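Dear colleague,

Thank you for sharing your sequence with our group. We've completed the structure prediction you requested, and as agreed, I am returning the results in plain text so they can be pasted directly into your records. Please verify that the sequence below matches your submission; if there's any discrepancy, let me know and we will rerun it promptly.
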Amino acid sequence: MRAAYIERLGGAEEIRVGEVQRPEPAAGQVLVRVAATVVNPVDTFVRSGRYATPLPGFPFVVGRDLVGQVAAVGAATTGFSVGDRVWCASLGHDGRQGAAAEYAVVDAARLYPLPDGVDPVPTVAALHPTLTAWLGLQVHAGGVGPGDTVVVQGGAGNVGSAVTEVASASGARVVALARAGDAEWCRARGADAVIDFRSDDLGARISEQVAGRVTTWFDTSGVPAATAAAQVLAPRGHLIVIAGREDQIVLPLWRFYTRSLRLVGFVISTATTGELARAADAVNALLADRKLTPRVAEVRQLEQTADAHRLVEEGIHGRVVLTV
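Please find the predicted structure tokens below.
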């Protein structure tokens, strides 16, 4: 089969597209014919070695997420039949080969049915951000719903947009922090208010939009405004961090410990199969209701995987999907 792979860790120039051995599903596994995959920032970290994770050896097929159809089912594997439309978002790390190939083997516990009628391209673009958003809000922040207020820092980004959609669908009020030019985009995703993240006295601006206090501040920008968050978070509120451009931030300790605030960092890579399955159910419900609208910036072919990695590393505004 054709696949995008590397034979050593390094830059995007290490990616090759060529013939590799087609995998066969073992017991408890499913062989999927891949229709589309996508390049996540973490895929570039794994490829370069920046994010250390066990690899299954070389050649190593890159990529985490896929949408496709079941091509074969391993022995003693239940729940899937040949021809089923499916998706997965946890390949390409922790000893598993990746998704950027004509075929991929997936553990049945990490494979989920695809709702009827959804387009593979926007769907595969939505998977990783929406799973991250749901895990952050409903697992790491203890759950959000009606009566909660969520501030999304980086509200126009890939994950930030998904946080807004997930929080809004859960019944929470959402305040998105984004550039003024992205206000319409954020409101279309479900934000009740949009504030320019560069505003002076950010905490005061947010307080003007919120009745009561914020229960969750979800930073997707990599530069969390911890001082403003500590100003507006309710007692026992959560500051969720999923990215970091700097090793250190200024943390207002007095406000944090006197208000019993929580600073929580996480990556989707550490989610358990049970957590991912719960998140997948929520993602499927949103997909079925057509409530996910990712920003797809580019659609490329598998042969252009190296270029797609470069676009992501350069900070392209939106998702880069690869069709197979």
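Summary note from our side: The longest strand covers residues 29-39.

Kind regards,
the structure core
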